[in-house]
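S.,

Sequence below, as promised.
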Amino acid sequence: MSDPVVELLESVWESIARLGANLSEEQWGTLTECPGWSVRDQVSHIIGLERMLAGESPEPAATEGGLEGIAAFNEGQIAPRRSRPGADVLAEMNHICARRLEMLRALPDEKWDEVGFTPIGDAPYRTFMHIRVFDCWVHEQDMRRALGISGHLSGPVVRHCLDWHARNMGYVVGKKAGAPDGATVVFDIEGDADGPRGVAVAGGRAKPTTPPDDPAVTVRCDVDTYNALCCGRTDPAAALADGLVTLSGDEELGERVVMALAYVS
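The prediction came back faster than expected:
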């Protein structure tokens, strides 16, 4: 019996496929907020990772210009596809993702629990697949913002990704923003099906909590803005100045939290 994460992966890949199905070649070349990456490059990035996870041989890493590690791997997958039509790159993504779904649905239970490499350190294979849902949705949103085609901002995949952001807000509030002991920060994200989420600082540690009636500060924005800030895609000062993010309560603390939201490297 496969893990429920498989249906989330299928959902996000189908959403990307629908987005790409009617794009012009000019749109495929549109630059996104990831430096140097076009819409086509975002899809190539997904292909490279899924080919690797399928046990296939992806393109060799690109080491020109001093690139190493994940940066070299990513460029190795992207560079050879830059000269290909976007529709062909999308077709390749659809093919490898269909193969990956077949593999995941056939995966024995013990393999889901097997600990190995993930982008956040050694963890069970199912954790890696939860990260893949998050990564693919983030890149889908990168493409959508670049193209001006909003979409896929609600539903199970989005809820999953907001949960992922929420699990990192203790680090943002406590360590990066330096919220003081006794303070509670509430994130009221328009479109979050779970409603406002709180983070309380006590004994020098920041942990999730039920939002109180009188938090130190409430941070409000929509799902797209919140995700873009958490992923370092949007300038937090500009988001505040433009009213994309609003604060109530301790505005100085709220501004520190917003400026510290980018935790995804």
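The longest strand covers residues 184-190.

Coffee later?
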